[in-house]
Design goal:
The protein contains 15 helices and twelve strands. The chain is of the alpha/beta class. The strands form three sheets. Strands 7-6-8-9-10-11-12 form a seven-stranded mixed beta sheet. The protein has a three-stranded antiparallel beta sheet with strand order 2-3-4, with no helix packed on it. Strand 11 and strand 12 form a beta hairpin. The radius of gyration is 24 Å and the shape is elongated. The C terminus is likely disordered.
């Protein structure tokens, strides 16, 4: 064991005997009492020393016998301890790719806050490398989502879209000017490969069966299918239990969510039925709107808003892939120009929808994810 205090949390002394690890309330931890000599030992728990050496240095500092072990136990109990050798074979395999670790350094620090056990950050990256995700849409929102997921270490990111890249699809972090005129699927595939921190195992190289889809992100270029999802398009995902997340920009309004967990949270059919209950004219108008978008109505997709939507959607997707329930689960988050106040709207199962949603998202997540990220095989 080579223990180290997690470097992601900034450290400060609240008083002469109390140390606070972390600035923001979400992950900050207060540890006390800690005397000055024990505090000096904290600086030596940096992953370069084994326990025998730490015990010897603690003794040389005049600390009582067993103090080093007690401090390490306290840090571990508070979720503040990592171990440069922890995580088993899967974590060790990631350690064998130093360039990947260098690229994903900030991601590893972030994962260490969420997965508090020693080695949890490396196990999180190892799990991401086995996951398969599909993004439907390669416009300003979809292409950037795909790039972020690949850049964050998701091993297989597929992008589905038709036609050729247009100048309006170009966005910083997404498809570049050199992509204009190329097939969208090819251009997006190139973007994903260039964004990835090293090459994950390709189909046929990894042991075991082809991983199933862990998530589908629906990010249409026109935004309408995110604002008013088509139940027919989602029918196969609902039937086969594939989680899916909607994201897009329509008429200067950004939307992220809902994240649909089939059998647990409301689906596109639930949303459509609920809207019809509120507005009997909805089906008639929806047919006209979909027809207009097929006639290539110009999208009002502000670059700043589309980037914000893509970033938020990618963050929610990663949270789910890491085994958590993001705020978009069973909820839509919307923000409209110019004020851009993000507001949540619950999306509830409809009693007449055949999807069978129960509203029990935690149970569905346990079924889908199979437990923590470290145990996750890479999709249903």
């Amino acid at each position: 064991m080579y223990p180290t205090v997690k470097p992601a949390l900034a450290r400060a002394w609240r008083d002469m005997q109390t140390v606070q690890f972390g600035v923001t309330p979400a992950h900050a931890v207060v540890l006390g009492p800690v005397d000055t000599a024990t505090g000096a030992l904290l600086d030596r728990i940096d992953g370069t020393r084994g326990m025998d050496r730490l015990r010897a240095e603690a003794s040389a500092m005049g600390l009582p016998q067993g103090q080093a072990d007690e401090l390490v136990r306290r840090l571990a109990g508070a979720g503040l301890l990592d171990d440069a050798t922890a995580g088993g074979p899967r974590a060790q395999a990631v350690r064998g790719h130093p360039q990947v670790l260098e690229r994903l350094g900030p991601d590893l620090s972030s994962l260490s806050l969420v997965h508090r056990q020693p080695g949890g950050d490396l196990l999180g990256v190892a799990a991401r490398r086995t996951i398969r995700v599909r993004v439907r849409g390669s416009g300003r929102v979809g292409a950037l989502i795909a790039a972020v997921l690949a850049g964050a270490g998701v091993g297989r990111v597929e992008v589905l879209d038709g036609g050729r890249v247009e100048a309006a699809d170009v966005a910083p972090g997404g498809l570049g000017p050199g992509s204009v005129g190329r097939l969208r699927a090819e251009a997006a595939g190139k973007l994903v490969r260039e964004s990835a921190p090293g090459r994950a195992p390709r189909a046929g190289e990894a042991e075991g069966p082809e991983p199933g889809l862990a998530l589908v992100v629906v990010a249409p270029r026109d935004g309408l299918q995110a604002w008013a999802p088509d139940p027919d398009t989602a029918a196969d995902w609902v039937a086969t239990g594939v989680p899916h997340l909607y994201a897009g920009v329509l008429e200067g309004t950004g939307v992220v969510g809902p994240l649909v967990l089939p059998g647990a949270t409301a689906c596109a059919g639930c949303m459509e039925r609920e809207r019809v209950d509120r507005d009997t004219a909805w089906p008639r108008m929806l047919v006209q709107w979909r027809s207009a978008h097929r006639r290539r109505v110009s999208a009002a997709c502000d670059l700043g808003l589309s980037t914000a939507v893509a970033g938020l959607a990618a963050a929610h997707a990663l949270s789910f892939l890491d085994g958590e329930l993001p705020a978009s689960t069973g909820s839509r988050w919307e923000a409209a120009l110019p004020a851009l106040h993000w507001e949540p709207t619950p999306v509830r199962p409809h009693p007449d929808c055949p999807c069978g949603a129960t509203g029990d998202a935690p149970a569905a997540l346990a079924h889908v994810a199979g437990g923590s990220t470290a145990d996750r095989p890479g999709g249903p």
